[in-house]
Amino acid sequence: MSDGFEGEFTADGPVVVKIGGARAVEPAGALADVAALCEDGEQVVVVHGGSTAVDDALERMGIEPEYVETPSGVVGRFTDAETMDVFKMAMAGLVNTDLVTGLQEAGVDAVGLSGVDGRLLYGPRKSAVRVVEDGKKKIRRGDHSGRIAEVNGDLLRTLLADGYAPVASPPMLADDGVAVNTDADRAAAAVSAELGGVLVSLTDVEGVYRDPGDPSTRIERVETPGEYEALTEAAEGFMGRKVMAATEALEGGASAVVIASANADDPVRSALAGGGTHVLAGAVR
């Protein structure tokens, strides 16, 4: 990585940009910023979600999206076989193609990948999940989801070295040979850990707030275990999942994680220059 980000980071790895799939996230600014970074000679990998696109596709097909809560309080999609088919169509088809098209229009030689391609994202399948329903812990079977254990970093490094910008998304390839759902935040964390880069996680808020309803309480920088503990206590709901992913990224080898707004001006570069919430490796190692 170059020295152009005000001395914030020292990693030699690429910038991994996670573009969220929430309805309030507008990707155009992020894509323009990725193009600017690439033009400056930075290596960039984009990892994206697509929850809204999946829900919209399910609605058009008359299928009710189902979300469940784990005993640890994390809310995620329950993906049965029918939902999995729609998930593959929406994520690897619609959303990925639109993002790659946007980058190509901006002059970036982008390559779209699902986690199945080249066994990019690989790991064990979770055919049953523990959930909490009506205050009771239960086991739900028939889930098509998995936990990423391996990232094909050689594939990504080869594409980056040849001047391409990979654009990757779930699904992942499970150890039983089928495509399954996996959390896009954790996928981005796994990619940034494998590449030793900086993860910029773009979402619909400006960072992690001490008071979830008050943007003026944004936590700007987390460098110590004590500050990290305060961060985890402040992170609620969907932000808890992003902080969990940030932890996995840093424990796995990423140099830093920034959680910032996708809708800011120059969202990636402003995040790298000090915007959002910066979590440094020393806080969790």
Protein described:
- It contains 8 helices and 15 strands.
- 35% of the residues lie in helices and 27% in strands.
- It is α/β, with parallel strands linked by helices and 285 residues long.
- It has a single domain, classed as Carbamate kinase (3-Layer(aba) Sandwich).
- Helix 1 links the parallel strand 1 and strand 2.
- The strands form 3 sheets. Strands 1, 2, 5, 6, 9, 10, 11, 12, 13, 14 and 15 form an 11-stranded mixed sheet that branches. Strands 3-4 form a two-stranded antiparallel ribbon.
- It is globular and about 45 Å long.
- The N terminus is likely disordered.
Secondary-structure blueprint of this entry?
Blueprint lengths: L14 E5 L8 H12 L4 E5 L2 H10 L6 E3 L5 E3 L3 H25 L4 E6 L5 E3 L1 E9 L2 E11 L3 E2 L1 H9 L3 E10 L4 E2 L3 H12 L2 E6 L17 E2 L2 H10 L3 H15 L3 E6 L5 H6 L4 E4 L5
Parallel strand pairs: 1-2, 1-12, 2-10, 5-10, 6-10, 12-14, 13-15
Antiparallel strand pairs: 3-4, 6-9, 7-8, 10-11, 14-15
Beta-strand level of the residues, as a percent range? 25-35%
Specify the overall morphology. Answer: globular
Order of helices and strands: EHEHEEHEEEEEHEEHEEHHEHE
The major β-sheet equals:
11 strands, mixed
